[in-house]
Amino acid sequence: MLKAFEPIQIGNLTLPNHFVMGSMHLGLEGEVGTAERMAAFYERRFDGGVGLIVTGGISVNEAGKGSKTFFNFQVPEHANELQKMNQLLKGKGTMCAQLFHAGRYANSRDCVAPSPIRAPINRFIPKALSEEECWKTIEDFGISARIAAEVGFGAVEIMGSEGYLLNQFFSPVTNQRDDYFGGDSIRRMNMSVEVLRSVIKNLPEGFPVIFRMSGIDLIPGNPTFDDVVQLAKLLREEKVSALNIGIGWHESRIPTISQLVPRGAWSNIAGKIKAKTPGVPIIASNRVNDPITMEKIFGNNEADIISMARPFLADANIINKVKSGDYKRINTCIACNQACLDHAFQERSVSCIVNPEAVNELQFPTEKVQEPKSVVIIGSGPAGLEAARASASLGHNVVVLEKANSLGGQFHLASHIPGKSEFKETMRYFENELAALGVTIRTNTVANLELLEDMNPDVVIFATGVIPREFSLTGLENLPYGNYTDYLTGKFIPGKKVAVIGGGGIGVDVAHKLTEDSDPSYESYDHKYNISSYTQVAIQPHESDRKVAVFRRNGKHGAGLGPTTFWALKQELDSAGVEFYHGLDYKEVTKEGLKVVLKNGEEFIYKCDSIVLCVGQEKESSLYEEFTSKFPNKEAIVIGGAKNSKAVDAKRAFLEGLEAAHSIGVKK
């Protein structure tokens, strides 16, 4: 991958390597007083080896704001805040402003679009822009580009992908006009072309202008590949500096960046466009998170530059680690979306499940402590691992006690779910990172009061996790059964028709493994969603080897799973014929199956040959309670599931591990 670390030219800008950090909302936009926090986040990524960073979308006018958490270039207070950020980053690298207009995706009753067609993910019907308003919007893109240069940005990217305004003009699904900006495929391209012209006209000659265009919309009836290539050629003729190939619309029912998507699944789209449009740098993106995938993309000549966003949340130093070959110490993005996209769409500050320091750099400084402590951490699940890493990074002397023969706890268990094998990358990272930091790890070690008294540490952090909740039901012994840990560790093998009792996040994940016991491959993903058709993509019904039903007394199935990922998992389970039941009580198990009583009093038996119990968890905090009772003056911290099993998730666990490390020695 040596060529990837040679300089490359975009406009008059020379990048130090062939990587850029792609656009990603931080949840800090739209507010005054956030420049320092944004700069601290971006600075650490520049220090980690990337030469160009694209901001989250910055609206070109008020109608273009996706929500209240957006800057608007034409609001002086917003432009000033962005200027402060750029001043703090001066000399670090090139900040690229994404010129943005949400179109019908704007969360406002005043949203606008090419035609008055409501987006499935928005309750508001957009107003169709008049031709005059189209030209005013084009002018706003140009004005915003000029302001971007004036406040210190070194490049701009025009957002024309992901189903936002320019993409809406390009698609016959959302553009039903008959004027200069719609009516046939060429006229549907005019909005993008005119915006590019306006932007270039308002910038100094050679100023880098990237256009993020959609390589495939993943909406039935979207533009053909020939149309996409034609647009790419028109943009090249207008002297665009680079084309960044986006994938899919937000309303698409095809997952594009979650764990259900194989790594590098979309680079071939960028490669096909590159083959048809020589003479302009092509940027590939989506589900690129490891050096092997990067090498494949460059080796197949599918892109000149790779854009990654979430991987920079997980590891600010990913580019330096790739360059030095220190792959084992890359904290890999696991594509979970839980602290990044889920937060962004909830208008919350984003971070990263496996790196909670991300976007919180000012809250968690990395300077070594003046008085190192001896720290014992019991348990090596997410909370314990992050507590160990952060404590050692701060200079403390750390020992981890783990009763199992490997690290990971519940994270290790979850890695057996299809797609969640990415979790194994997290465990690989911590194993290598903790070793590099000098952390002592003692596996196959059961912690008890005697051992802790003998070790006599300054601080004990209890990350002892959770245990499956006990469950009893009349006649349960009539059928083979096991809890989720038994199933995921191979101690219990269900039959061909399975009832899953408990429909929370664990129950739904178990149903996924029961119906599909392997990670997605490019071939299986392409077949499952009919990707090769290009214009008629949709999930395809398929038969599972098992018949599965998921039961839940009350509440929604999949509670606790992220909103940007659960819909896709539920869709896959539905297509595999998984049945879902809720609003019921469990009555008994007979040799025939599971008998339940619905809220209306009706009874029915789900015929099955085995049962998997996913009925929740209880905290395992007994040692913490014993220790604090016997040693009330010792510094003891309880975190993760051992602290609260009801709201336990890996996001909270990793964060509490980080917080625990930074609380050591701090007077309460």
Task: Provide an overview of this structure.
With 668 residues, this protein is of the alpha/beta class. It contains 21 helices and 27 strands. Strands 3-12-11-10-9-8-5-4 form an eight-stranded parallel β-sheet. It has a five-stranded parallel β-sheet with strand order 15-14-13-16-27, with helices on both faces. β20 (547-552), α19 and β21 form a beta-alpha-beta unit. α1 runs parallel beside α2 (76-88), α3 (131-150) packs parallel to α5 (185-201) and α12 runs parallel beside α21 (650-663). The longest helix is centred in the N-terminal third of the chain and has 20 residues, at 131-150. The protein is globular and about 75 Å long. The protein starts with 7 loop residues before the first strand and ends in a 5-residue tail after the last helix. The mean pLDDT is 96.
Question: What integer value in Å does the Rg equal?
Answer: 26 Å
Mean pLDDT: 96
Largest sheet data: 8 strands, parallel
Indicate the structural class: alpha/beta
- Portion of residues in beta strands equals 15-25%
Global morphology: globular
Number of helices: 21
Strand tally: 27
Q: Are there runs of 5+ residues with pLDDT below 50, and where?
A: none
Spatial order of the strands in the main sheet?
A: 3-12-11-10-9-8-5-4
The first-to-last residue Cα distance is 50 Å
Helix content: 25-40%
Question: What's a quick, concise take on this entry?
Answer:
The chain has 668 residues and is of the alpha/beta class. The radius of gyration is 26 Å and the shape is globular. The relative contact order is 0.09.
